[in-house]
User: Fold Bifunctional uridylyltransferase/uridylyl-removing enzyme from Streptomyces marokkonensis.
Amino acid sequence: MTSTDVTKEAEDSGPGGYAAARLRLLTERARSGPPRRTALAGLTDDWLSGLFTAAGAPPRGVCLIAVGGYGRGELSPRSDLDLLLLHDGSDDKAVAALADRLWYPVWDLGLALDHSVRTPAQARKTAGEDLKVQLGLLDARHLAGDLGLTAALRTTVLADWRNQAPGRLPELQELCAERAERQGELQYLLEPDLKEARGGLRDATALRAVAASWLADAPREGLADARRRLLDVRDALHLATGRATDRLALQEQDQVAAELGLLDADTLLRQVYEAARVISYAGDVTWREVGRVLRARSARPRLRALLGGGGKPVAERSPLAEGVVEQDGEVVLARTARPERDPVLPLRAAAAAAQAGLPLSPHAVRRLATSVRPLPARWPAEAREQLVTLLGSGRPTVEVWEALEAEGLITRLLPDWERVRCRPQRNAVHLWTVDRHLIETAVRASGFTRRVHRPDLLLIAALLHDIGKGWPGDHSLVGETIARDVAARIGFDRADGSVLATLVRHHLLLVETATRRDLDDPATVRSVAEAVGTEHTLELLHALTEADALATGPAAWSSWRGSLVADLVKRVSAVLAGGRLEEPEAAAPTAEQERLAVEAFRTGQPVLALRTQTEPPTGRERASDAWHAAVLERAADPEPLGVELLIAVPDQAGVLPAVAGVLAMHRLTVRTAELRSLPLPDGVEGSVLLLDWRVAAEYGSLPQATRLRADLVRTLDGTLDVAGRLTERDAAYPRRRGVEPPPPRVTVAPAASRLATVIEVRAQDAPGLLFRLGRALERAGVRVRSAHVSTLGANAVDAFYVTGGEGAPLPGDEAAAAVRELEESLRA
Assistant:
């Protein structure tokens, strides 16, 4: 039976005919989704129009209007009929009689009815007082009667909405936020409300209202399809339950999935979550744009006054990273950015945005998604470092990650992500889907980066620890294999990949053993020690365990569980310490290093050499003479991964802070650094300090080696005030409200060396950090025997081997004083 046949049957048979035709339409398997909703709305339109004219000609100046969801033609099987009987006020008695002829047949059929009878003036007044009424009228659609009256109301309501939008849109945004607070986020709930939860149908309607205001518009890509999908699920829910409900309860999900022809309830939830994610992201972008437009409007009169009534201010663009700038409170691509030639740009932009606590512009993300070329099969080191920086940025990581996901960039970077994306977790302990839980774990882990020697491994393990949940079988075992493959792809060496695989394989080991086994049984501790293998891996696993639990939900972690895990870790650490290998001997200096050392001693001045580095050196390369052979004035490669900087300086006080300060002044980022004292050849008294650094230009340009050397000479002889220069530069740039990093941590590593005291510093990487630390050690009166500095993402992890004046390890009180001096420098 066609829709015309159904409508004719309804017209011919009155209310009974409408009910039969409606039932037949709802039970037709061949017709579902938008066609059924459109047919149901058309059927209902014809029936109500028939009721409107059933008693002859209706009064003049009266019309029947569908509003809200019915006005949009979105009638689900159990939807309310939202109706407005509009009249000009000339014959109230006739209008009341007409209302009775309309409303009672609807009630008699058991249909839900939301009705009102108003004049145009009353409708406008009510809309001005009640935002929900005004939103419903924005979708007003004529059904019967005086078409001119309907058209006039629509025109007036739209004009009112656009004129009042600057005041009403913030009210609408507040309503959406309050509803989200009550109902939660649709994309994570196991029993979501399809209409009221954040990312649901109400939010989709709110975005239509924003677009109608002409102030801003939502991203259109995928939005209509997401709305359709949620409406299809609601239709199936109404048919499965026979009730007007929007709550997708657990016990009804299998039936709803079957109604939609889906494999199972998990497939259903995943589709719901994907749709909700599209709507939520569109809402975030839209409300941000509304705020920007409203701020610009409020500032415009003041700007006109400042500009003398003419001219248009140019938006400021502040550089954040190579090819990435901040503009109007968003992170956008620089005008010189070339995504098609810079495959690391998406990760660099995302890391810069997260570190600054700013959103990524949707236009920038879309451009990256459509034009950037893929990363090579094995990522360059910069890409890996930018990913680590993004993951270590704390709470802002979530919004930036969602922006990348909205354009499909995450699954292009990490194809294994597709299997966990929007995957539900049917466990009341879990608050999030699998993919959001992984990001939440990274957020939590970013607060523990000061506790571990390798923050980068901790953050990547947090991202991957549940990656196996997208496959059949034990997700820890499956995840171990995936983690090893991903580690190789993103550029970790085999040893680091093995550690990551171990962390993923055993990410539940500590908490399960601590809560389910007897810790006084030696076999318990021994088994954990054998599984973990090393103290460093145990340290990482402890932090990952806590981050994972905290990211799961409040029921997954407690002080009791934490104390049990800590006790287990302490016992296992003691076992592992007993089997510790001897420290390897330092590598012999290369011929190039010896040559520089002799030259520095002969001239009494610093000597340095630069070499472009496009890939991280292997251990064999770093020990070879060929690696140090070329001395370059500037890097030839416009996009180098980094530059190796070798500096030889006659042994004297203040070398470390001097070199670090000069590099910071020239905007060179220190990625790794080593400092050691190099004895001169036999027969020559004295020693030379050798600094072997890997640096990169902050914004792509490298200084000349001659300038670096000249500034280093002036710094060492006291004629260049590096500290003052750095202070002036910092004062010239206002501080951005970015991510709040975890507090720094300075500790003395117990029994780390028999020859020196080892002081470890874990802090947020920042320009001039190493300079401040070096000066603090100088003030503490200690001698730096060697330094091992590395920057892992946004985290600086530095170890200083220091001695007293006699060359012996520091006594306890002197070590404590040095720690306090370093802590004070980090607080400054």
Summary: The CA atoms of residues 783 and 805 lie 7 Å apart. The chain has a mean pLDDT of 87.
